[in-house]
Structures are given as structure tokens and as C-alpha cells.
Amino acid sequence: MHISVPWSSSSVKYFYYMKKALFSQFGASIDTLEAVIRLCPDEQWDREHNIWYTAFHTIFFLDYYLTPDQGNFAPPLPFDLSEFEDRMPARVYQQDELLEYINHCRAKCRKFLDRSDESLLNERWVNASGTMNFSIFEICLYNMRHVQHHAAQINQDLRRSANVAAKWIRASAHELDV
């Protein structure tokens, strides 16, 4: 659905606060994923729940959904496109590698939201198959839900298997410069 929005000084001010709030909560989801990765004991990283893989899958799609031109999507090295090829990655990715990938995505999220207010509603994010067709604003919400879902899944696995869990993060510790 395409929405055309008339712009005024009050709508610009509204979008300023909306983008700050969106990044605060989106960033909190990213921060939660980072917290559960940091919290995971080494002996749990590559066990029955494949915490490393759930973390990688989440970060990979965080990165992909933050890519305006999906045809040019390529994750940073050492990561590959295994998620699109219906196969496991060639090796287990380590915590420090995935933490670096999260930082890459956090910066990409800032850039993704650093666009005109009108484009948040009027530009489209459409995947190659056309099965996902969202406004930029909606793909951000979709992406945030995906990250939070898997961060909670990892947190629950850690609580059950290692008796540790990340605390609730109310808002991102990082700011959006708008």
C-alpha cells in the first residue's frame, strides 16, 4: 500500500521523534541480541541448540533487511550467502565474529534510518521474489520483530541450559543522530 503524506513543519517534527523512537527500540532489540551472545558460555555456543547458528541467522537477516538494494546484498567477510542457499555455513562462527557483525549492522541501521521522512513511508523494500513488499518503515518493524524473536529464543535456551539470562533492555544504549 502506498501512502502519500502532505509535509508540514509539524509532520517533520513528528518524524524526527518517530525515527529516534524507532531506533531506540530497534537498537534495544539489537542490544538484546548482543547481550545474549556475550552471555553465552563457551560450552553452550555449539551444542544441541546451535546458539551460534541462531545468532548468525538473525544477524544475517538483520543485515539483509537493512539493504535497500537487495540485488547487491553481500554480508561482510567471513560470512557467506548460505542462508539463501538452504545450507549451514561451512564452519561455526565465533562470538567475536558475530559481535563485529552486529556492530556492522547497528551502523547500517543508523544509515538506513538516516533518510528523508517521506521516504520512510513512500519508498518500498521488495525482496527478489516479490513475496515481501513493505514500506521502509514497515521493514524496520518486521526486522525488529525478527531480531527480538530470536534474541528471546537464545535467551530462553541459555536460561534452560546454563541458568543464565540477559536482562530486559528498555531502550538502546546507542543514539540515532538525526
Descriptive account of the structure:
This protein has a single domain (16-162), classed as Four Helix Bundle (Hemerythrin (Met), subunit A) (Up-down Bundle). It has a two-stranded antiparallel ribbon with strand order 1-2. The longest helix is centred in the first third of the chain and has 31 residues, at 9-39. The protein is built from six helices and two strands. The model is unreliable at 1-7 (pLDDT under 50). 57% of the residues lie in helices and 3% in strands. It has helices at residues 9-39, 42-45, 51-65, 95-113, 117-122, 136-162; strands at residues 124-126, 133-135. The protein is mainly alpha-helical.
Keywords:
2 strands; mainly alpha; 6 helices; 178 residues; disordered N terminus; two-stranded antiparallel sheet; globular
Short description:
Helices cover 57% and strands 3% of the residues.
> Which structural category fits the helices and strands?
mainly alpha
Q: What is the C-level CATH assignment?
A: Mainly Alpha
Count of discrete domains: 1
Q: Quick one: CATH superfamily?
A: dinb family like domain
Q: H/E order of the elements?
A: HHHHHEEH
| Whole-number mean pLDDT | 88
- The value of Rg in angstroms is 17 Å
Spatial gap, N to C terminus: 26 Å
Going across the biggest sheet, name each strand in turn: 1-2
The assigned CATH architecture is Up-down Bundle
In DSSP terms, counting alpha (H) and pi (I) runs of 4 or more, how many helices? 6
Total count of strands: 2
Largest sheet: 2 strands, antiparallel
Beta content: under 5%
The shape is: globular
CATH topology: Four Helix Bundle (Hemerythrin (Met), subunit A)
Helix content: 55-70%
Poorly predicted spans: 1-7
